[in-house]
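Lab notebook, bench 4. We co-purified these components, and the gel suggests they stay together. Before we commit to crystallization screens, I want a quick structural picture of the whole thing.
Request: model the full complex, all chains together.
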Amino acid sequence: MRKLGVQAVEDIARGAAVMASGGGGDPYLGMVVARQTVEEFGPIELLELGEVPDGARVAVSMGLGAPTVLVEKVPRGTEPEFALEVLENACGYRFDALLPSEAGGWNSLHPMLPAARRGLPLLDGDGMGRAFPELQMVTWSVFGQSAAPIGVADERGNTMLIDTRDNKRAEDLCRGATVAMGGNISLACYGMTGAQARTHSVAGTYTLCEEVGALLRYARTNRVDAYDRIMERLGAVELFCGKVRDVERRTEGGFARGIATLEGLDAYRGSVLAMEFQNEFLMARRDGVPVCTAPDLIAAFDAETLTPITGEALKYGCRALIVGIPCAPQWRTAEGLAVAGPAAFGYAGVPYVPVEQR
Amino acid sequence: MRKLGVQAVEDIARGAAVMASGGGGDPYLGMVVARQTVEEFGPIELLELGEVPDGARVAVSMGLGAPTVLVEKVPRGTEPEFALEVLENACGYRFDALLPSEAGGWNSLHPMLPAARRGLPLLDGDGMGRAFPELQMVTWSVFGQSAAPIGVADERGNTMLIDTRDNKRAEDLCRGATVAMGGNISLACYGMTGAQARTHSVAGTYTLCEEVGALLRYARTNRVDAYDRIMERLGAVELFCGKVRDVERRTEGGFARGIATLEGLDAYRGSVLAMEFQNEFLMARRDGVPVCTAPDLIAAFDAETLTPITGEALKYGCRALIVGIPCAPQWRTAEGLAVAGPAAFGYAGVPYVPVEQR
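Here is the predicted assembly.
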């Protein structure tokens, strides 16, 4: 057990924006909300997965929607707790600990809000070890756990309780709610025991995000060394360095979708990289050839400052470093690839090859 | 109190298709479901609004979605009861009586399913005295009652509980659920006391639909006399007789929307009637001039057989009689027109003039 103070949550927000593969929400927004939460309610308790009691009642606290919307429709801060209360009322009991769904500038911070307000511990893990666009794309699904019942809340106090036995159906119903509620909402879901959380989660996500975030902070004064250390820490592969030539973007069906095209700089001069996204970057093709696909991570950094660039912040003229990061090993199994491999995103003809072997 | 047997529910389904102003769902489907329900569970008890005890717990049982979808995605029959159970679990008590939301070939029958299965009485009234496309367009809204909490269920057993204090917001959230659940779902909502149901509902809707349905049955052998008697019973105005030249139809956002154009026959030769619909017929223009608008009813009958024609059944070549029917007096107040007058459907420039005065 350790406590997360202001510095830790700021680092987590920044590091999670790298691990989010372009999604997971705006890290600046995450930082502001996290700082305010810890300043108001004090440091947040973080338990390693091994420290949670078997019988503890654990729930996932997450935002759902299009990151593009989040930037304009800033959360009120109380909706994560409202969603949790809806779930608790349905279950008839209170939860003992919270988990994030994914690594993300906003989604890593989301469970901190109800945790800080309630004095509940967070668990150091998540359901992805990265970010994915859809609710069922979590390791808990791979292990057969139900997302529902799901508590839903928006910033105006409107709530929903959703129940279904099919996690993909749960995604469809929550996405419908997201659209009806303005594009971004809070959920409380995947109720499970401490034993299940320990066995079925990706371990150490907060600690990893914090380390990466600390290295990004170090990059402000020592960019080159910080880059090398981040690449080494993550086992990452440099895919491209280039200037954004075009971003085709649409916010539709509760997702931010599109494609970004980069023209090569330096060693990549003459080449073109195309990155397709559905909230997250899912496919990078260099001169038409796939160089990294989901479930591996594709991260974008500002080439000068190493600031992570999320999908909604990519714009014409950005000079970006694009790197591929091996995903958590859970995703490289047949069951994991069925949930979040290239075919799950419609790239039926693209076989999955680990990014470090391409 | 009286009992509704097979003949009564068949007549109600047929008569309600007239009172539904083109919406409210397919009357054939309604008849089949109603007949089966009464055959299986026995006659259904119908109470006049004056007979319900003040403190009785009353809920509205209704379908929501696009009638076009209903024809292909036939209800399973258990979803109205599932929706009621979701609402009951949230409220912590069981309901004593059920009300339909509106007159409609399917929506008049919808509450019969849980009523018959549970042995609950129905009340002889509704929230419209006709059909309207949206959840908040009911007399109960006019009197300030909350639609939520709302139990929602689809035919696969997926459920939702929706809570919001704003009835238009409730419509938006339920419509989102409708789209996510395949275009047509069951709700249980507008929980109220017997006293509220008595004061705030349109009275006698089932009895009126049954009378009109019996006249339509009589029309099989005596078309001309039946037509005169229906027009007299409803205080209706003949608007047009013509052949459908075109129906522009799209099922979008959980509604069936479009416009039907008819070429005049007989006394109307040389004229054109355009009927715009959003599930229900909302505006009829003869040669460009409004002749009937919501909240008054626009009903279409097959010109030969007097069979009512709902919006989804209108097609090229139909010979149809179009009549205007004065709405329930609740809709002609300032509060009623604010909820369901021409401006509520986007016809801001068209003042409401009672159909019998046009």
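The two ends of chain A are 39 Å apart (CA to CA). Worth comparing against the SEC data before the next meeting. The interface with chain B takes residues 86, 90, 156-166, 169, 172-173, 175-177, 179-181 of chain A (CB under 8 Å).
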